[in-house]
């Protein structure tokens, strides 16, 4: 293999790594907070998303699933006129 082939294979390999680093699949009922150079940029919704790997990073993974809170039974004594 000559030098040109080695360089081309290395560039293809590095390009594939950047593509895999830039693709984010966000699960349903989750959102990802993206920061660009440490500052808020956007929020990724559920689905297939792209980011620029060297500039952007996923800072937080937020679960937006609604949760049901159990009712707290209140012990109230009431005097009624019957």
């Amino acid at each position: 293999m000559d030098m040109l082939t080695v360089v081309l294979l290395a560039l293809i390999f590095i390009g594939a790594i950047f593509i895999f680093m830039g693709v984010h699949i966000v699960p349903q009922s989750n959102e990802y907070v993206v920061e660009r150079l440490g500052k808020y940029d956007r929020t990724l919704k559920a689905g297939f998303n792209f980011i620029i790997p060297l500039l952007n990073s996923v800072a937080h993974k937020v679960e937006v699933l609604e949760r049901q809170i159990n009712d707290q039974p209140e012990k109230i004594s009431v005097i009624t006129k019957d």
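Helices lie at 3-22. The chain has one domain: 3-63.
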